[in-house]
Amino acid sequence: MRGRRTTGALLAVTVSTTLVGACGTRTPPAPDPAPAPRWGAQPHQMLAATASDRVGQFVADAAGFALYRSDRDSADPPQSTCDGVCARTWPPVLVSEHTMTAGVDPTLVGSVARPDGRRQVTLAGRPLYRHAGDRRAGDLSGQGLDGVWFAVTPEGRKAPAESATPSAKDGGGS
């Protein structure tokens, strides 16, 4: 009989402690997950011809952000030389399920394997990048940086450089 009372008392204490603990303390809700980065592989990648007074025609993504190419990369065979720290300033345009074009010849669109195993979109063999310094659609903050980075034209060529070329100290990086 005594064993039953001890078990019953122990059960009552456990239930009471649990109820008091549940009522007296509230666990804060888990924070919302961090927002997804704005760069990276999207379900659909868009390469669209657009224009600006600054460089003439260039290619932008679906959100209107300029796409760039690097003179350090090669087109034949396609090869990306920007990874690590460079890829933080110049995020690669990654292959998605569907790559759509508007004003860009789809036969010029391809891809290349990156050192990390992901695939990067190419245009006329040149790997494509975004510039982390571009804050809104139409920005061309990466144009001509270090004499290496240029907005890409719908034909895959580099957009004309401006007369005053920004340098790495101005945020060009590589």
From TrEMBL:
Residues 1-21 form the signal peptide. PROSITE patterns: PROKAR_LIPOPROTEIN. The keyword Metal-binding does not apply. This is Putative lipoprotein with Yx(FWY)xxD motif. GO terms for biological process: alkane catabolic process. It comes from the Bacteria. PANTHER family: BLL4220 PROTEIN. Keywords: Lipoprotein, Signal.
